[in-house]
Amino acid sequence: MITLLEARNIGKRFGGLQALTDVSLTIRKGEVYGLIGPNGAGKTTFFNVLTGAYTPDGGEFVFNGSELPAGKPHKIVGRGIARTFQNIRLFRDLTALENVMAGHHIRTKAGVWGILTQNRFTREEERLTTQRAYELLDYVGIGRFADVVSKNLSYGDQRRLEIARALATEPQLLALDEPAAGMNATETGQLKLLIEQIRHDGITVMLIEHDVKLVMGLCDRVAVLDFGKKIAEDVPAVVQKNEAVIAAYLGGGKHAH
Amino acid sequence: MNELVSAVPYLGKRNPMAARWLIIIIALVAPIIAWQFGKSWVRILDFALLYMMLALGLNLVVGFAGLLDLGYIAFYAVGAYTFAFLASPHFDIHMPFWLVLPLGAAFAALAGIMLGFPVLRLRGDYLAIVTLGFGEIIRIFMLNLNYPINITNGPQGINMIDPINLFGWDLSRNLQVTETFSINSLFLYYYFFLLCVAGSILFIQRLQISRVGRAWAAMRDDELAAKAIGINTRNMKLLAFSLGATFGGVAGALFGAFQGFVSPESFSLMESIAVLTMVVFGGMGNIAGAIVGAFVLALLPEILRDVAVPLQQTLFGTVILDPEVLRMLLLSLAMILMMLLRPSGMIPARARYAHRENMKQEGAQ
């Protein structure tokens, strides 16, 4: 198995709160990797550090064999990591299509002069961006809403649109922050199919999720965070039986005594 | 142009072709109609066109990129003073118009970047305050840079600026067509400014439907998400400031040449606010809004001045309210009504950031 992402001793502190302590993990190419843990365990912080929204206090990420620039979101996206947000963050006033087209920004190059003169390169690039955006909307199953302003989409469709927008950046690693939050069983089932499709198409997926059934059914391997530390990492079936994990989720166990 | 066309009431949606021609015809005959009411009205229309350019440029910064700029008039000042320095007896430099205009635009763009850098991390109220300060700094520079070396001639301003000269054709002279028929210089300026506004609309429309326009809109709607999809928000902000400033600079250069005189008092905070009001009044974030807002708010005070005094004299026998006071009063009233009845402006159209033609083509597949 080829390693896609390696996190080495990632640390992040907010004032007096140590949000992440020496977190190390390895994600292999082509797998679905779950990151779970109780609320406040540091999962989203890990995402934010990985995608450059925060700069880590210590440690580094190695992606495809070279180090990621810390705290430089657009460069990290350029290297091939895309994310979605726990609380949906779409471009509210743009249509679904325009949201996805905006996602293609980093893979396009037209400058002001090209846009002004509408030269062949710019027109061709614009055409490809549009075409790709339509394809992606169909891919996630909301093609018929292309012209709907995104704030008017239903909740489930907004989640799908966010995934389509992330895919438009042409990532190798797609980081999903609680994609099933607020979804009913049917919607979650559809989401599972979509994520499987994404993996099948060669994109590695990293997933934060609270829905245990989804995580167990979908992930190849799972890491568990508790109070900013990694307490377990293995295939779901083994993690499920891990004592420290059970203690972290239910309280009690060794910590309480 | 498309947005402007669909903003035409009734016709816009039903018959875009007719609406398009209607706009073109109105734009072309407007000064001829205005001429019937007196020469000064054509002059007012000329100024309205300059305001349109300003509103278009500010709309790019505030409406598209979501960066509230309360000092926009500073770029207008930079353009106007650049023109005044390089084409007037003040330094005795008389560079040709086609050289000075791009220079004015370039200096304004530079000023835009100078403003942009320190405010990159600011948003909302904080950004507004700093840009307001920037506008005042530029004005005060113009006011005080006459000592120890006289650069700007201080509060007296710079006089006798060269008129616009298009390859030997002087726009400030009436065009003698036949011995008895001549076209007034104000018309020549009008049509030249109209051309500039049309060019600006084309330019901005193209920017809007492009990767840059979408990146601005993304940044405006959610900066964090924009970063997360790989938009370099620093560069995009600087681009918005400098391009917006370019329009201000061009409008300023045209203003200096048209008026033949610049002084710091033309670039007060009130002017910045007036341009912002035009953008908000018309409908932020769309081209048609900026055009309509600028047109209405540039004309309204002049119409008021013309109507208010005689009206009061016939009604009350004397002038109770000075037109200047009345203007502020009515403007405020209009803004309040606006906020209550049409909070997103007179033309609240949502701007498009993708081609409609593309949509049909690809959608059918």
Instruction: Detail the poorly predicted runs of chain B.
Output: 359-365
Total domains of chain A = 2
Structure summary, number of beta strands of chain A = 10
The fraction of residues assigned to DSSP E strands of chain A is 15-25%
Percentage of residues in DSSP E strands of chain B:
under 5%
Q: Spans of chain A of 5+ residues with little confidence (pLDDT < 50)?
A: none
CATH architecture of the largest domain in chain A: 3-Layer(aba) Sandwich
Distance between the termini of chain A: 41 Å
The averaged pLDDT of chain A comes out at 92
GO biological process, one term (chain A): L-valine import across plasma membrane
GO molecular function (chain A): ATP binding; ATP hydrolysis activity; L-isoleucine transmembrane transporter activity; L-phenylalanine transmembrane transporter activity; L-valine transmembrane transporter activity
Keywords (chain A): ATP-binding, Cell membrane, Membrane, Nucleotide-binding, Transport
Protein name (chain A): ABC transporter ATP-binding protein
Question: How would you describe the overall organization of this protein?
Answer:
The complex is a heterodimer of chains A (257) and B (365). Chain A is of the alpha/beta class and 257 residues long. Chain A contains 11 helices and 10 strands. Chain A has 2 domains: 3-80 and 171-256, P-loop containing nucleotide triphosphate hydrolases (Rossmann fold), CATH 3.40.50; 94-164, no CATH class. Chain A has helices spanning 43-50, 73-79, 96-103, 112-117, 120-140, 155-167, 185-200, 212-218, 236-241, 243-250, 253-256; strands spanning 3-14, 17-28, 32-36, 58-63, 66-67, 81-83, 173-177, 204-208, 221-226, 229-234. The radius of gyration of chain A is 19 Å and the shape is globular. Chain B has one domain (2-268). Helices cover 69% and strands 3% of the residues of chain B. Chain B has helices at residues 2-6, 11-14, 16-37, 39-64, 73-86, 97-116, 124-144, 185-208, 211-221, 223-228, 233-259, 269-282, 287-316, 323-341, 356-364; strands at residues 87-88, 93-94, 165-166, 169-170, 175-176, 182-183. In chain B, the strands form 3 sheets. A two-stranded antiparallel sheet of chain B has the order 1-2. Chain B has a two-stranded antiparallel sheet with strand order 3-4. A two-stranded antiparallel ribbon of chain B has the order 5-6. In chain B, α5 runs antiparallel to α6. The radius of gyration of chain B is 21 Å and the shape is globular. At the A-B interface, α2, α3, α4 and α5 of A face α8, α9, α10, α11 and α15 of B.
